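User: I'm putting together notes for a lab meeting next week and I want to include a structural view of one of the chains we've been expressing. I don't have a solved structure, so I'd like a prediction I can at least talk through. The sequence is below, exactly as it appears in our construct file.
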Amino acid sequence: MFNKHNKKKNGYMLKGKFAKRGYDWWWHSFTGIDVKTNEEKAFFIEFYLTNPKVSKDEVKYGRLGDIPSYFMVKCGAWGSDHSQLHKFFPIKDVKINDSPIKIECGDFYLDEETLKGNVVVDDAESHPEYMCDNGSMSFNLKIEKNIAFNVGYGTSSLFRNIHAFEMYWHAEGMKSKYEGEIIYNGRKYVVKKDYSYGYADKNWGSNFTSPWIWLSSNCLYSKLKNRKLNNSVFDIGGGRPKAFGIPFNAKLLGAFYYEGKEYQYNFSKFWHPSKTYFDCKILDDLVVWDIKQSDRHSIMETHIECKKSDMLLVNYEDPYGLKLHNNLYNGGNGYGNIKLYSKYGKKIELIDEIEVSHVGCEYGEFDKK
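Assistant: Thanks for the context. Below is the predicted structure for the 369-residue chain, given as structure tokens.
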């Protein structure tokens, strides 16, 4: 069972060695509606901390040759006017409650049910260390986290405490509903719960993975049943994990909550073996994901595309101050299809064929040396 909410896993993790070489972030993505045109727009908001024990009183930027140390709010939108906006604060300005998570810093606030803030950037071109665009975005949102993707013992207290993995993942709100208001570059958007197609997760660790893959959506339509799947969501993520410094072959974690029934493809659960094949491509105008996952009882085939013109190259520097991901495509307007099959020995039957939209999506690899 993966639909197990766990607020401790959604808590603050920068302790022990991760306090000096680590990062921790809370990611939120959702769709809003332009109040004037009624057009949809996909947004993201992330609260990010790195290396809090390195510099408490002053922001340190890796792009300026330092070991980075700061609290950063990352936010923005996808589409033809996509952008990412960053605002930085010294660690001393941040109040954090471990679990349940609560982060307060000036106008910014995050807990399990609330997300507020206001970012304005007007000098990005003269500050490359910001790694962002010019623009503005304010947000005031309520969050309702309906379905979780808890990956299991790999994020248990034991493996968290001994810092076994280089990168951890927990999706407390794999399916979430957001409600509130966004003002993005002067335009107002309303966010409605049943049309927000929301997602909330977190990552933490000492470095990032390569390749970096993520796909998720809860806007699903059954072609066999001719109806929207209102109690469903899928989530796929991973790349090349490392445990105790030893890299695995490229692997993905996958979960499909299909109208109340769980299908999980989790390489870390060796007693429930699964297989994954993936082929991700960056074409002239598209990024494409083809993923096939299977276990003893089911097969999930996922094909997603996203227009590069709707995506951005998302920017992060690692806890050592290096920026190895310079072609990490990130979007929120992916679309495609999923075919879900049951397996009984050698007999395979189609459970459903599903149209997918409003897909959060990501793909990139480290720069080649």
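A couple of points you could mention at the meeting. DSSP finds one helix and 26 strands in the chain. The mean pLDDT is 95.

User: Perfect, that's what I needed.
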